[in-house]
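Pair request: fold both.
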Amino acid sequence: MAELPQPAGPEAFAPFDPRQAALGRLLFYDPILSGNRNISCGTCHHHDQFSADGVSLGIGEGGQGVGPERTAPDGPNRIAKRVPRHAPALWNLGAREFRIFFHDGRVSASPDYGNGMNTPAEEWLPEGLDSLLAAQAIFPLVAQFEMAGNPGENEVAGAVNDRIDYAWPILAKRVRGLPEYASLFQQAFDLETPQAVTIAHIANALAAFMNAEWRSTDSPFDRHLRGEGALSPAQARGMELFYGKAGCRTCHSGVFQTDHQFHALGLPPFGPGRTRVFDPIARDTGRMAESNDAADAYRFRTPSLRNVALTPPYGHNGAYPTLAGIIRHHLDPEQGLETWRPEQANLPQAPWLHEIDFVIRQDRLEMARQRRAIDIDPVLLTEAEIGDLVSFMEALSGAESRYGRLGRPEKVPSGLKVD
């Protein structure tokens, strides 16, 4: 078995200001940051779902409810598209080693634009962002099907339609115009006047909250690494497989089980896809859409496996409802593509979208392209060994940390409904 990683201590994480984290908690659950004031960050990254949403492809702007109970109401304002990718859990994103964000890595460290970051805003990224995590936080706010809404529905969506950075000052003005937020920002950031509040302050508060709230280093695996407790026999066998014969550590390396790289697993495609302007079909080319390098086609970022047993379904599109299912796919991706069935996807009901949900699977050439891109080799394991791997992944679940630290607020300064 390969050498185990060193345990993660407080030094693994960037520092944060508790005042900013407390403010970020309110912003995280406040729908004021959405175009139509009807969805928050917490809607799709909820405490009840351990910072995820529990479905394959969620219903963003225009939905009702939380988690697997969230619905897409019919009617003249019904949604036109599902969120094209699975909402990832937020565990340990405040760790210093996390330098790439989103499934396709579209927020990362880079010198290309003079601000130290490569993002969809390029040189128009707002000044004053303290971290990549803060930069990541502002993009769902201006995504049409996540939080912004459709052009013509509100001033935020209209501004995004002109240029991405035109929307953020509108949101900042909304927030600083509320007396309670104005006071909290002045205290948390030592500002002289509320007029100084910008989207960067909002982003930095959100990042402080995520850094503080979603830390998980108290799992049975962590205790084992620190010499404070033994794993169960099944967990120990699974760990030996993970770091040995099964080859999981090749990509899921380090204390948080990720190499922060991109790999093509051939996960069964479905949904609207995160299409580019010129894509003629509902496909998702993954990292290639960001890098414009054909070698990156259908590659997606390796997720951390912390609390993975608590946050199904699995994959960049939530293709597999169980850990055993996603493990079997990793062991033989081509077989997984062949045997996967649409019933395995957990899609909130929206009958008017059914025609597009699985249409990509009928495209013979696109399916062949995805098969050719697979870059992991098959591994033969028994069902008993798969069960042991599942047991080890369950040992990556945090104890008290799984519930967060500050928790979900009962109310927010805007007075809007908290999901």
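--- second member of the pair ---
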Amino acid sequence: MSEAFEVTWSDLNSTDWLALSIFILIAILPYIVALKQKTSLALATVLSLLLITFYQMVVDMGLFDFNMITFLSVIPALSDPYNGYRMISAGWLHADWIHVLGNILVIALAGVPLEQRMGGKRWMLIYFIGLLGGNMTWIITHPDSYTPAIGASGAAFGILGAYMACWPNDKIEFPLLFFIRAWPVWMIAAFRLGLEVYYASEIEGGGFSNVAHLAHIGGFMLAWALARTIAKGAPSSLDETGDVTVAGSSLSNATRDAAKARMGDLNSDPWTEAGLTLEGDAARIMKKLREEGDELETRRAWLEELAEQVICPVCKGEVFALGKGENYTLKCSLSKNHLNWP
């Protein structure tokens, strides 16, 4: 059994490297796009997991002679430190579509509002903490096992643990007890964690399951323990209360606050710095922009009007307003390097 999983980097041939490179590219591409466009990292994670599951299925059908489970899953009995990458890579592998859909359900429904609460970078840290917490728990409790462990369940439970630790009274749309409605986060987390504790105790009593329930508990508990420290300085204050849903005002305010924090300074402008004087409508709009541009909507409106009245201070080309999420900037139509204001 052990020899089947004792695969080293030197054992990989050129085809294996190609298969592995495609795996990495597919996994990270949604994050690159999300970071560039400043969109949700939680939804990028959902897309990444779905794409990798599809790729895994295609590889298993014979596209490559490369066993991803053998090389990328967590094998507790493999003590070689060079196998540490498996702690991450295993989180992108799943047994079947039911397995991955169960995880992305939590990541999408609970992960998106949590990301709005704490911001993308903190959310990704929580995600990896849950993933590592689950895998470490499994390795510690099954040190001699050669059974592969795969899946993002530890990360999904880590999201629930972090959400419960920081904003337990938020209500999110979630399927629970055969009903889909807005449930308090603490109720969702307590119910799901309670089931995992029950199933784990059944296994300890002599039962059998191919689900790593202890890994789920480990991911939940580690994220829960560290979440409040990580969430300090997040867009939303800890323990913010209220009847909040995914589309509720508190989450919208948190998103708006984060977007407003990214708004650029209007005190200086590239035309003045280039020795150009704005006149007529351009000068009037610039004045209005500086007076009223402290809100997202008014800033966008005045920037769009200003774009029609000014030219690029570098090449004298046309200018347009480009939005990334809630934030808008003026760009040169000929070169992105000429203008990026404010």
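Observation on the second member. The mean pLDDT is 89.
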